[in-house]
Amino acid sequence: xxxxxxxxxxxxxxxxxxxxxxxxxxxxxxxxxxxxxxxxxxxxxxxxxxxxxxxxxxxxxxxxxxxxxxxxxxxxxxxxxxxxxxxxxxxxxxxxxxxxxxxxxxxxxxxxxxxxxxxxxxxxxxxxxxxxxxxxxxxxxxxxxxxxxxxxxxxxxxxxxxxxxxxxxxxxxxxxxxxxxxxxxxxxxxxxxxxxxxxxxxxxxxxxxxxxxxxxxxxxxxxxxxxxxxxxxxxxxxx
Length: 239
Prior knowledge:
The protein contains six helices and ten strands. The chain is of the alpha/beta class.
């Protein structure tokens, strides 16, 4: 196995974006692609590492750029500023995510009939919105993601399989949001799973998360368990 990685430029209309991708070049066969949507800081080293780990599973890992080439926040305030336009305009969010989906499918190593998307925090919301809008993805996985649906979107059946991996003690996602999301999935007749991990807060996959006052705390056991849950879920949906 030889994991290689690089970046690739793409556009959302006139907005220049740059994804990071990784794959195992010991095979010349086309394979499934997994888009990886970043948390509120932007396309950083964390999601690049996830792309490499996805490649080690035999897929193409495609770390999406939602903010624009070179834009990565360096503080909570800057992260919030970068994320705000997409939280305020979910149509913009979906359009930017769909541009990444189109770009990923063009990579020559990709089987464009086998596509999944995973996301962390803000990225979890991005992948759920892909499913809500009926994007051509087989499956989506949200890690400690935000859950609320846009109020102005007309609900429709969800065809992608959905897995939500959630920290039970996540203060950024109140129980009302969990209940609303589960009701939304039932109404959409979705194939959905919701795993709630005890003694787990927000950002549980990120080793650098260590702010219990804000509610972001790394949990090694939950990070491991959730990654294994994702692997099983992807394997099932890429058959």
